[in-house]
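Task: fold both queries, return tokens.
Query 1:
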Amino acid sequence: MLTTITGLIAVALYAGSAWLQGKRLLSPTVLLQEVTTNRLVLLLAAAALVAHLANAFGVISTSHGYDFGFFRVASLFSWVMALIITLSSLRKPLANLFLALFPIAIVSILCSSFLPSHYDPNPALSGGVALHSALGILAFSLLTIAALQALLVAWLSRELKHHHFSTALRHLPPLQTLEQLLFEIIQAGFLALLAVIVSGFLFMENMFSQHLAHKTVLTLVSWLVFGILLWGRHRRGWRGKLALRWILGGFLVLILAYFGSKFVLELVLDRV
């Protein structure tokens, strides 16, 4: 019951924050009113994040074990996205992204709270393994956001280069702001991926056993790719198409690590 209540509270707060931001975007106001509205938008977003986290924890941590079903993971994924953009909006003009992001969070909360899960929770799953799984979801969420953000930056750069100033483009944050946010997300994803690797070696019995070898090796390769990218950005100023290739390359390897190994085990080797 408490999980449902926190979910509905989060939905209402996200909706209120997005509505205020939309009203602020469409209605010109004096500076004082705009500052007040911005603070209220962020306050509602922060409260929504707290309620959303409580809801996500409630639907994942069940009496039968940890439920990492699709909608549960999607809710946690949307929470990570909402957290990143909300925190970043404290320093950068990113609040317009709430209008696209918060509806996704609302849908994910409603689905995880009211739709049945087909995932079979494992009551024997230890806290360390659960932490490893949660960190994996966090890392994958961050680097998925980075991949999507990289595509957005590439599209925005192309539009500006060809002098295509559409209405949608005018409501997006500046290109430089989006690019800075992109590499901040990649850095966070890189550290989260490192935490996944470390926790795996600490809490899993054998990270290079037959059923984990594919995932372990590919995760290490992806972490190395993102590490080289961050080095290139810091030392050589990598950006544009070069950075995009490294980002998408690292993300592709990560997808293979998370889903490719599952495909091999379940469909090729016929193992659970």
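Query 1 returned. Query 2:
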Amino acid sequence: MSEQHEEHHTGPIKTPKQLMWVSLAAFVVPIFVIIGIVKLVVHG
């Protein structure tokens, strides 16, 4: 019979520390983008 090779698909995040940084960036970056857009609209 044929042997099946099953790969485990893993994401780019390997450690809990990476998960923490990605979570923090996903929260902080949109806030800065929104603040920048608000300042652009109010100042312009």
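Both queries returned. Flag for query 2: The chain has a mean pLDDT of 87.
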